[in-house]
Write a structure and sequence with these properties.
The protein is of the alpha+beta class and 677 residues long. It contains 18 helices and 20 strands. The mean pLDDT is 93. Pfam families: Catalase, Catalase-rel, Catalase_C.
Length: 677
């Protein structure tokens, strides 16, 4: 109590000291606005003369070396992209013309908040960045696993990250948003309402990178060879479906295997189970820009798939692991400004700021302007210009000429015309006064947060309430907790009342949203469900029924599941008829949280410790709503823990029927009915 009083006194002193201070630039100029970047009109592009934005963002970009400020914890793989059908009608981008051409890609997945040494199965947004090595140059689709973002203007990005990072006075907590400064930011920057709904949902604790959607977040433009433009958003949809961990499971995984996600990706590729993602696009005609009840340029808004269908246009397959994590994964430099002819930008103010920030960041991370010459960043097509020298220059330029225009080298290299493939910016008409402002069309912060809530299944809603309860339960300041409760009463009274009661806040009695619309595409329950690559922990001891168990294991493999043997000790396990299995894990190294499902078998020589470990293994998996199958001794264990008749629990003596029902249970991923009883 004494420490808490001291902390409150210090905080009040800080507030008193700061009350008379006015915000200035680093050079002392007083700042009149710190919410909006300078634009040509409220919905116009950000202007380069915005010295306040450039100073603030430059300082932020250079705050950390050498690891990334955000997305420091990442893992990557190589692959290829193939087109299903030509997109010539919409874009002249070369790699989107010919379905017979395969484009090399490099994809980096990452957590956002934690440092390079943090655990991976944390509650966080995930980066999903793809570099296409096209014949027209590199195209970078730099996105996340969440469709929207916390803020609407890039000027706010340093504030967001400062708030979510460990608090500077004690450098805690690491890789977590469950602390005062983050939720104080949320409560006082209510444009974050929609994104926070996503991060409190199961989307923020994905089962694996292979089962995680990706989104370009921003509104871009497709431009065809006739100069016609369409607004476009990009989606990556995993072929295996979109699936998640449960919170208790994720916390345990972080202790038992902090490399869980990267290990899953690496081992899947090594085994030939190549992750696949289909590329989808949402397209809006330019003359339909204002046909919606939200602004299509607002990065805190999504385009509901039921209103703007996702057109699937191709597939990406990741089929090769990196040779060296530092040289490739750490040195890769993404930039949303790396575009090719046929792909252009919109006036999304968050995107406009990123177009400045990414190059600025790489200058300090990778030691100067020549990071494009590192092998992982080098385009596959030739590149020529008059840029010279600088740190880490690798190209040896010949001749005396390094300027344009010139006669000594016949004016080479010379710009390419549009007909020759030269990039030309879409000639959007721009009019407006120079202002620091936000369009009125950006000011609805709660409607799509309510849409997200309405679209969730009962189990997903329960998880969101639990997530808010955990996160805000870690917040020390009661006023911040109450502010968040009052904020989310604008989204859903059911939601706000649910977590308010759990954290001891005043329970709101009025509020809620008039939005009744749903978008089924937002619920993971409507995602494809397959047994492919799902891991099955087979709990087996000496004396098992060799022929029957071996046939079941073989059948599971044939249906795409991946059985792994868990026993008391490593080595050979002998069946009753001479059959042998090799233990892949012990109960010490192969805990239930590391598997998707359980097949309990046992054997004639089950020790007391084996029996005890098996019961714990089964009960923990059951509490995480995982599928459980059992034959032989395993059926008795189900009865011991009273779960034999529960949803997703399969047992029986008919081998064929058992396998079919167990595979069906595995494909479902989780059996949430257990939580809702």
């Amino acid at each position: 109590m004494a420490n808490e009083n001291k902390k409150n006194e210090q905080l009040e002193q800080f507030r008193t000291d700061d009350r008379e201070k006015k915000m200035t630039t680093n050079h002392g100029t007083k700042v009149s606005e710190d919410e909006f970047s300078l634009k040509a009109g409220e919905r116009g592009p950000t202007l380069m003369e915005d010295f306040h934005f450039r100073e603030k963002m430059t300082h932020f970009d250079h705050e950390r070396i050498p690891e990334r400020i955000v997305h420091a914890r990442g893992f990557a793989a190589h692959g290829e992209f193939e087109l299903y059908e030509s997109m010539k009608e919409y874009t002249k981008a070369g790699f989107l013309q010919d379905p017979s051409v395969k484009t090399p890609v490099f994809v980096r997945f990452s957590t956002v908040a934690g440092n390079k040494g943090s655990a991976e199965a944390v509650r966080d947004a995930r980066g999903f960045a793809t570099k296409f090595y096209t014949e027209e140059g590199n195209y970078d689709l730099v996105g996340n696993n969440i469709q929207v973002f916390f803020i609407q203007d890039a000027l706010k990005f340093p504030d967001l990250v400062h708030a979510v990072k460990p608090e500077p006075h004690n450098e805690m907590p690491q890789a977590a948003s469950a602390h005062d400064t983050f939720w104080d930011f949320v409560a006082n920057n209510q444009e974050s309402a929609h994104m926070v709904m996503w991060t409190m949902s199961d989307r923020a604790i994905p089962r694996s990178f292979r089962m995680m959607e990706g989104f370009g977040v921003h509104t871009f433009r497709f431009v065809n060879d006739r100069g016609e433009a369409h607004f476009v958003k990009f989606h990556w949809k995993p072929v295996l479906g979109t699936h998640s961990l449960v919170w208790d499971e994720a916390q345990k995984i972080n202790g038992k295997d902090p490399d869980f996600h990267r290990g899953d990706l690496y081992e899947s590729i090594e085994a030939g189970d190549y992750p696949e993602y289909e590329l989808g696009v949402q397209i809006i005609k330019e003359d339909e820009e204002y046909n919606f009840d939200f602004d299509i340029l607002d990065p805190t808004k999504l385009w509901p798939e039921e209103d703007v269908p996702v057109k699937i246009i191709g597939k990406m397959t990741l089929n090769r692991n990196v040779d060296n994590v530092f040289a490739e994964t750490e040195q890769v430099a993404f930039h949303p400004g790396n575009v090719v002819p046929g792909i252009d930008f919109s006036n999304d103010p968050l995107l406009q700021g990123r177009l400045f920030s990414y190059t600025d960041t790489q200058l300090i991370r990778l030691g100067g302007p020549n990071f494009h010459e590192l092998p992982i960043n080098r385009p596959v097509c030739p590149f020529h210009n008059n840029q010279r020298d600088g740190y880490s220059r690798m190209t040896i330029n010949k001749g005396p000429v390094s300027y344009h225009k010139n006669s000594l080298a016949d004016n080479t290299p010379e710009p390419a015309s549009e007909e020759e493939g030269g990039f030309t910016h879409y000639q959007e008409k721009v009019e407006g006064r120079k202002v620091r402002a936000r369009s009125e069309s950006f000011k609805d912060h709660f409607s799509q947060a309510a849409l997200f809530w309405n679209s969730m299944s009962d189990a997903e809603k329960q998880h969101i309430i639990q997530a808010f309860s955990f996160e805000l339960g870690k917040v020390k300041d009661p006023s911040v907790q109450q502010q968040v409760v009052d904020m989310y009463a604008n989204v859903s009274l059911e939601l706000a009342q649910g977590f308010a009661e759990n954290i001891g806040c005043d329970i709101p009695q009025s509020g809620g949203s008039d939005v009744t619309k749903t978008s089924p595409a937002l619920s993971q329950e409507n995602s494809p469900k397959k047994p492919d690559t799902r891991t099955v922990a087979v709990l087996v001891a000496n004396g098992f029924d060799g022929s029957e168990v071996s046939s079941i294991i073989s059948a599971l493999k044939d249906r795409g599941a991946q059985p792994e043997i868990v026993s008391e000790k490593l080595g050979t396990i002998k069946g009753s008829d001479g059959a042998e299995l090799q233990a892949d894990h012990t109960f010490l190294t192969g805990e239930s949280v590391l598997f998707d499902s359980i097949y309990a078998v046992g054997g004639d020589e089950v020790s007391e410790q084996f029996h005890k470990d098996s019961l714990y293994f089964i009960q923990e998996a059951f509490s995480h709503c995982k599928p459980i199958g059992a034959t032989h001794e395993g059926k008795k264990w189900l009865e011991e823990v009273s779960i034999s008749s529960s949803p997703g629990v399969v047992h029986g003596d008919d081998v064929k029927k058992f396998v079919n029902e167990f595979i069906e249970a595995i494909a479902k991923h989780r059996h949430w009915d257990r939580q809702l009883v």
